[in-house]
Amino acid sequence: MANPTTRETILAAIGRGKPDLLPLPETIGFPPNISVDNLVDSFMKMVQTNGGQAIRVPSLVEASAFLAEEYDLTLPILSRVPGLDISNFTPQEDLRLLDDLHLIVLQGIVGVAENAAIWLDETAIGIRAMPFITLNLSIVLSEKNLVGNMHEAYRLIDTSTGFGTFIAGPSKTADIEQSLVIGAHGSKTLTVFLLP
Amino acid sequence: MDTASPKHAKAAEAFLRDEENTDWHNETLWFVRSKRDRAAQSLPEWEQLREQASQIKAHTLSKLDDYLIQLEENARQNGIIVHWAANGDEHNQIVLDIMRKHKATKIVKSKSMLTEECHLNPFLIKEGIEVIDTDLGERIVQLRNEPPSHIVLPAIHLKKKHIGDLFHIHLGTEAGATDPQYLTEAARIHLRQKFLLADVAITGVNFAIAETGGFVVCTNEGNADLGAHLAKVHIACMGIEKVIPQAEHLGVFLRLLARSATGQAVTTYSSHFRKPAPGQEMHLVLVDNGRTRQLASPDFRNSLKCIRCGACMNTCPVYRRSGGHSYHTAVAGPIGSILAPNIDMKEYADLPFASTLCGSCTNVCPVKIDIHQQLYKWRQVLGEAGAVESTKKVGMTGMDVLFSHPWLYRFAGRAGRWFMQKFPSLANKPGLNPWAIHRDMPKPPEQSFRDWYAQQNQKTNG
User: Fold this and answer.
1) Do B268 and A172 touch (CB under 8 A)?
2) In angstroms, rounded to a whole number, what is the distance separating the alpha carbons of residues A56 and A144?
3) Which end of chain B, N or C, is less packed with Cβ atoms under 10 Å?
4) C-beta separation of B305 from B57 below 8 A
5) Set of chain B residues whose Cβ sits within 8 Å of the Cβ of A33
6) What are the residues facing A41 on neighbouring strands?
7) pTM here?
8) What SS3 class is residue B296?
9) Buried-exposed string B291-323: b where 16+ CB fall within 10 A, e elsewhere
10) What residues of chain B lie within 8 A of the CB of A46, using their CB?
11) For residue A23, what is the DSSP state?
12) Does residue B254 contact residue B206 with C-beta atoms inside 8 Å?
């Protein structure tokens, strides 16, 4: 007989060693601690706690004006938000060229008020590396798509896409003497625009 | 079995010699522990959340084979290449074979305690491969040729002066510079080049989901994503205990993980990888390395619930004052001291004794592992296997005799009080009495509690 493969050996060892079946909890998750009226305030406060900035705007026109004020729009910029047309950068096949990206604007899908994490999937992101390689990141999100906690978020998002991520702020590190530094390897800033 | 040498105690002694640094280490970790407390208290359902997490993990362990098969099947359907490794050597060989297949010579790695456990870096470097750790703390310890001293804060044992000197030599930063902002920026520029040129990216796995055949990687720096999305090949390495049944369960674990680890509400990036991007290749390596043995042991299997948040280290009074390196294992601190003897009982026999058994680790564990009780059980297992150091064994035997003979116990108490009253300088001599190292012995009471109680009784009755 042939030697069993590693896979078979491991699975057999688990079969022998595992405990008797234990049930899953009947319900998973908890109702949110944030009332519907407070979703926006809580979310905006958490964006700030996470090191980003959150701005409430009535329409994309104001968001666009804010970005024009804040960033040099002659630098490589890409917007994937329909109606916010400030792009001057076309991603090439060679992913290394993305390193030039100064600002990218993406459409967030769901925002979580408890921790300010924003879900983006492949359709929102496009080339996966972009929200991580860009120097500055901006996300546009509708207030209608705010939920209280992660349990609610998982009920709404599609986890069957190729790639998706919760982003909660600019990248950060505290590896040098626990001093918080904003801007590790990912984006150095995060600006979130909340639309009605 | 040989008796273990007191490695932890010896290494801790060396760490403690720099008193200022020890105090700083202790206070810094306590600061993180306090942040964790505030984050936990912000959720009224925190305790029930821990209970749910613990139950989901317990259920998963009771069907671990089924969930791994489901994970494998779904991952394959998603286009991920799945590998199984019985131990660290097999794991390392799988990674090397993938490198060779692609004629790849450069790897960027994000933090993965599993690859530390398997000693992947030295293996690949010996094969002529450039291995760059990209988490800032990991890169720092890599440049120092050291292992990480903490699973979440790998360079927590170093001060910014050390890092400034290190970066001056390796990254050409200004001599004497210690500003964390400046040093982090230098590392960003240095590592950006490595990300852009790497052939292969290795990441760990925080959670793998049987239902979707995908996996989740959590970082604050964005290094895992940057590496994985830029390289042609992404290899994700996981211990088999990292699987959970469904995506919905992530809601429970992601609320617990960062709060327990650093006191953040969530990590900056919680990335869900499910299919390789067009033109890229994705591998998932499932590693046993002793986990099935741990699963088969009712006393210790709960340790497989661990989600590697590091909360038990931050709260441990021994870890905070002895430093992660004193544990001489990839995962230091209380949880590591349960995991390590399972991998090598002889090598790590000292670790279950590096604890006060105060239970603080158990109190903060987000998945409710009975950490201090398992440490206590390991001591018994090691005692029976003869792996307890001889001085400790003599002491234990002595106490056994003492406590089973009340008259002897009373006599010893009287003798002890008399001795400490007459010769306090001898009792406080560290060379004669190890309990007097770093502390003075208390003044002995005039009488024993037993005598005092008898006296009180006499007073009331008389």
Assistant:
1) yes
2) 13
3) C
4) yes
5) 43-45
6) none
7) 0.94
8) coil
9) bbebbeeebbbbbbbbbbbbbbbbbbebbbbbb
10) 265
11) P
12) no
Question: In whole angstroms, what is the distance from residue B269 CA to residue B248 CA?
Answer: 18
Side-chain-facing half-sphere of B168: CA atoms under 13 Å? 12
CATH code given to domain B43-158+199-292:
3.40.50.10420
> Counting Cβ atoms within 10 Å, is residue A63 exposed (0-12), middle (13-18) or buried (19+)?
buried
3-state secondary structure of B269: strand
Alpha-carbon distance of B37 to B262, in angstroms, equals 10
Paired with B131 in beta bridges are: B107
What are the tokens at B167?
């970066």
The three-state secondary structure class of B210 is: coil
Residue with tokens 């069957």: A160
φ, ψ at A59 (rounded to 5°): -155, 175
Task: Please count the residues of chain B.
Answer: 462
CA distance B357 to B364: 14
Instruction: Identify the residue among B184, B192, B218, B219 best suited for mutation to test binding to A, counting A beta carbons within 10 A and taking the highest.
Output: B184
Domain range summary for chain B, segments of one domain joined by + = 7-34+310-389, 43-158+199-292, 405-461
Residue A51 φ/ψ region, left for φ over 0, alpha for ψ in the -120 to 50 degree band, beta for the rest: left
Residue B370: strand, helix, or coil: coil
Identify whether the C-beta of residue A104 lies closer than 8 Å to the C-beta of residue A67: no
Cβ contact (<8 Å) for B271 and A171? no
Among the listed residues B212, B301, B218, B306, the one whose alpha carbon sits nearest the alpha carbon of residue B262: B218
Burial class (CB in 10 A: 0-12, 13-18, 19+), B401: exposed
Coil/strand/helix, residue B215? strand
The CATH superfamily holding the domain A34-194 is NagB/RpiA/CoA transferase-like (3.40.50.10420)
Of A10, A29, A177, the CB nearest to B252: A29
d(CA A131, CA B282): 20
Contact B349/B4 with Cβ under 8 angstroms? yes
Interior/surface letters B247-274, b for 16+ CB within 10 angstroms, e for the rest: bbbbbbbbbbbbbbbbbbbbbbbbbbbb
Beta strands in chain A (DSSP E): 53-56, 77-79, 103-107, 110-112, 118-121, 136-142, 146-147, 163-167, 172-173, 181-182, 189-195
pLDDT 10s per residue in chain B (462 long)?
444 557 999 999 999 999 999 999 999 999 999 999 999 999 999 999 999 999 999 999 999 999 999 999 999 999 999 999 999 999 999 999 999 999 999 999 998 999 999 999 999 999 999 999 999 999 999 999 999 999 999 999 999 999 999 999 999 999 999 999 999 999 999 999 999 999 999 999 999 999 999 999 999 999 999 999 999 999 999 999 999 999 999 999 999 999 999 999 999 999 999 999 999 999 999 999 999 999 999 999 999 999 999 999 999 999 999 999 999 999 999 999 999 999 999 999 999 999 999 999 999 999 999 999 999 999 999 988 888 777 777 887 888 888 889 888 888 888 888 888 888 887 788 777 877 777 788 888 888 888 899 888 888 876
Scanning the structure block, which residue is given the tokens 């993990």? Answer: B57
Rounded-to-integer distance, Cα A24 and Cα B417, Å: 56
Using an 8 Å CB-CB cutoff, list chain A residues near B269: 132, 165-168, 171, 186
